[in-house]
Amino acid sequence: MIIKSKAGNGNKIHIYIDDEYVLTVYDDYWHQNGFKDGETITEEELASLKEEAGFRLAYEKGLDYLARRSYAKKELYLKLKLKYGDTASERAIEKLLYFGYLNDEEFAKYYANYLFEVKKYDVKRISMELKLKGIDREITDNVLKTLDNEPIQRIIVMLSTKFSNGFKDEKTKRRFINKLQRMGYSYHDIKSAFSECEINFENSEE
User: Fold this and answer.
1) Sign of CA dihedral 178, 183, 189, 193
2) Rounded Cα–Cα distance for residues 113 and 110 (Å)
3) According to the model, what pLDDT value does residue 161 have?
4) Residue 18 pLDDT
5) Sign of the C-alpha dihedral, residues 118, 119, 123, 128?
6) Which pLDDT value is given to residue 206?
């Protein structure tokens, strides 16, 4: 088999075997690897080239994703796996962890605070969201303990902010109650908050 290269966009090099495109690598990896255009390459050498190139591409893509936003370890692995497969993605994640680019504890703190302060979710919904991101139970429990969670008071604030003049009709009230439940607030806490605001809750029950 004869290996050849062709310059791609930026620092990419396209690799061809017997004039058929096989894969793309970064130029520094290609030059360090020692192959030259027109040389013969064995099946074993090609397999090794593909494995290392896949790992490097997965790692670089991981860095690119992390430059845009934070990720949990499992979340990023699954995203990389779709394009680069198990082995390359696992190796990329290990390297990202080694250099400190990935940290589930830091991600969980950031994400939980975002959901709590911006989305106004209750801790029950936040716990579920962290689980979906692949955060383990111990980290989740420790992060939730740091949140100043007073669900009834938080509902009261939302009521006074959005519905200071009350609800225009029962349909609007029901929609708001359903939304609060999707946000993780319990039926009991919602009812208590309505009571403290002297808003009739019973008519909203189906």
Assistant:
1) negative
2) 5
3) 87
4) 86
5) negative
6) 45
